[in-house]
Specification:
This protein has helices spanning 4-9, 36-42, 52-60, 72-86, 134-148, 168-171, 185-199, 204-219, 223-240, 293-307, 324-335, 347-366, 368-389, 440-465, 487-499, 534-567, 575-584, 588-593, 596-600, 607-617, and strands spanning 16-21, 27-33, 63-68, 102-105, 114-117, 126-128, 253-260, 264-273, 276-286, 314-316, 340-342, 396-405, 408-418, 421-422, 428-431, 480-484, 506-511, 517-522, 525-528. The chain has 622 residues and is an alpha+beta fold. Strands 12, 13, 14, 15, 16, 17, 18 and 19 form an 8-stranded mixed beta sheet that branches. Strands 9-8-7-10-11 form a 5-stranded mixed beta sheet. It has a 3-stranded antiparallel beta sheet with strand order 2-1-3. Strand 16 (480-484), helix 15 (487-499) and strand 17 form a beta-alpha-beta unit.
């Protein structure tokens, strides 16, 4: 179990981002800290003054996690990315569409411009950022335009054609005047290249120029101009600060770090999607028994990317692994596109790998036991289940349940577990269309048929568009199907699979007379499972989740139908009159007991409709 007091004492005095989870493992708050130890502990101090919202949030915290970074700037950007990824309930001030600024150089134009944008596109332009200070970005753009005479207008200019009279910037010697048509393209591109050199971090030239101009202005007693150059230098320094958490190439990558001692290792995986870091996973590897990091990492990459549903185009490693070319070839085959395994040596990518290594070291040091317990209840449970029902591999499990009240509002549920954990984004609800009355077998037949028919349709569409099946797609079929019930439900499932020519193993989750999980129905035999085993606990969680999801959907439909079935069946009563009746009378019984005169007093209810309502409720008295 997660002990908050113990975990607070383990917090490092370093910058990072923290994620607060509730008891259902939902991320309810994401925050950044210059010092994780001080910031996270402050939430749990009784002496700390908190707003009502924060007090409510703290009362819901079941556990927390954190990601180390190297600077407050990196924490800011990572915090922004994770808030957009998880949309936490208590980050109310950050739920807007705020994005950080980028510097854009329009290299697709004959005479490129430099500008600030809030969104990157896949075009011929070059992007730098993101940055946390829009003012610093604007000042730097002003600096580069003024220093190198770059244009700021959006006129369509070309060499040899005078399109307009030069603007004030030309007369102030802040622009070379491309609109006059006499600026050689090659000369202008040299100016742009100097600006690019500065933005790429090669800032010595322009910094020296600024310092010289500042000193000359000071010597000439032009202190106002000297202060302007000093402020531009300060703004440029902020922009020069390199950013590791986001990248503008919008490329999907996994960043892998590893930490290892004599017996155990932790591998940290950062997920970069569309150029932004959106999350991480750490994996505990036991029994390394003195193996080298290279050996451990090689085995991890082979095992991890065998089971993961998505392989990015680049995987960045801290060290070179064995069989690198063969693994690259295999992963490229799995993805259907070229996959590269890279060991970056310099620059931001190398720093990201080092950041993953740092986080892996922290996890290995502080969270070894917690990871072992978590892997035991997830992957360990899957291993036990695989051996129990004699399957070569299990990762994705789909479970189905039917809910109704004496055949009223039949619904079906599909819940999904991957790696022993629920994937709630893949859950699906089915409102039964073809079955009237209490017939769970017929309902299950419809649900399964719709699920896999949609799956084949989705596969065909993805194949035509040359796309990969993403999370939430029906095109991703499970390794194992679990039915809420015994022989009958399993036979229905096998019947559907046979009709659709699909080969997927099926088991039934059998319950006892008290509606508690009892065992598994496999190949015509009910298998008893050790009640203390992780496999049994996982099956119980899956069965309970399928039942809960179906019941919640059925309740929502039933509550809507109860109002509909009574008032909307009265001739002449539509949504507007129904609303007027419910506002005036406290309940259906109050409407039933009302006289025609009382009903017709409502502006929306004419006398003939009032008579119709009274007759509807009192037809048995006629």
């Amino acid at each position: 179990m997660f002990n908050i007091s113990d975990e607070l004492s383990k917090l490092p005095h370093k910058p990072g981002v923290y994620l607060m989870h509730d008891e259902n493992d939902n991320v309810i708050y994401v925050g950044k800290a210059v010092n994780l130890y001080n910031r996270v502990r402050s939430y749990f101090r009784a002496s700390t003054k908190k707003t009502p919202k924060i007090e409510k949030m703290v009362s819901l915290i079941n556990h927390f996690e954190y990601i180390l970074v190297d600077s407050e700037l990196e924490a800011l950007v990572l915090e922004n990315n994770l808030i957009k990824e998880y949309n936490p309930k208590y980050n109310t001030l950050l739920k807007d569409s705020k994005t950080y600024p980028y510097i854009k150089v329009t290299l697709g134009e004959t005479y490129p411009r430099i500008m600030m944008v809030r969104k990157t596109n896949k075009d011929k332009s070059k992007y730098f950022g993101p940055f946390t200070s829009a003012q610093a970005v604007n000042d730097t753009i002003e600096l580069l335009n003024g220093t190198y005479g770059l244009r700021t207008c959006n006129k369509k200019v070309e060499y040899g054609v005078e399109v307009d009279r030069p603007c004030l910037n030309y007369h102030m010697k802040r622009c070379v005047g491309c609109c006059k048509g006499n600026v050689p393209v090659d000369d202008y591109k040299e100016r742009v290249q100097k600006a690019l050199d500065f933005l790429n971090g090669n800032d010595k030239t322009i910094v020296n120029e600024l310092k010289e101009k500042m000193e000359k202005a000071s010597e000439a007693l032009d202190f106002e101009e000297a202060i302007r150059y000093r402020e531009l230098l300060e703004s440029a320094a902020k922009v020069i600060e390199r950013q590791k958490i986001s990248d503008t190439d919008e490329e999907d990558r996994d960043i892998i770090g590893i930490s290892q001692d004599l017996n155990d290792a932790v591998v940290q995986v950062f997920f970069i999607r569309n150029g932004k870091m959106i999350g991480r996973e750490h994996h505990h590897i036991g029994g390394v028994d003195g193996d080298s990091k290279k050996t451990t990492l090689t085995e991890f990459v082979k095992r991890y990317y065998t089971g993961t549903p998505y392989v990015p185009s680049k995987i960045m490693l801290p060290i070179e692994i064995d069989e690198l070319e063969a693994i690259e070839e295999w992963l490229s085959y799995v993805k259907g596109k070229k996959v590269k395994l890279i060991v970056p040596k310099i620059g931001d990518k190398e720093k990201l790998v080092e950041l993953a290594n740092k986080n892996a070291s922290l996890v290995l040091l502080q969270d070894k036991e917690k990871i072992i317990r978590e892997e035991r209840r997830t992957k360990g449970a899957l291993d036990e289940l695989r051996e129990l029902i004699d399957l070569p591999d299990i990762n994705r499990i789909e479970a189905f349940d039917i809910s109704n009240t004496n055949g009223f509002e039949n619904v079906g549920s599909m819940v999904v577990f991957e790696g022993g954990k629920p994937v709630k984004g893949d859950y699906r609800k089915f409102k039964i269309k073809s079955v009237e009355g209490p017939n769970d077998y017929a309902c299950m037949h419809e649900v399964l048929t719709r699920r896999f028919t949609h799956g084949f349709e989705e596969m065909k569409r993805l194949e035509e568009e040359k796309l990969e099946a993403s999370y939430g797609s029906f095109a991703r079929f499970p390794d194992l199907l679990l039915m809420d019930g015994g022989r009958g439900q399993v036979n229905i499932c096998k019947e559907v699979l046979s009709e659709l020519k699909i080969d997927i193993p099926v088991c039934g989750m059998v319950k006892d007379d008290y509606h508690n999980t009892r065992g598994l129905y496999v190949d015509g035999v009910e298998i008893d499972i050790d009640k203390t085993s992780e496999a049994f606990k996982l099956i119980t969680r899956i069965q309970d989740e399928a039942h809960r999801f179906a019941i919640e959907y059925h309740k929502s439909l039933r509550s809507k139908a109860q109002v509909h079935s009574v008032l909307d069946e009265i001739p002449g009563v539509g949504p507007k009159r129904r609303l007027a009746l419910m506002r005036k009378f406290d309940s259906i019984d109050a409407i039933k007991n009302a006289s025609v005169d009382e009903l017709s007093k409502l502006d929306e209810i004419p006398e003939d409709i009032a008579v119709s309502i009274w007759n509807f409720f009192h037809k048995d008295m006629a």
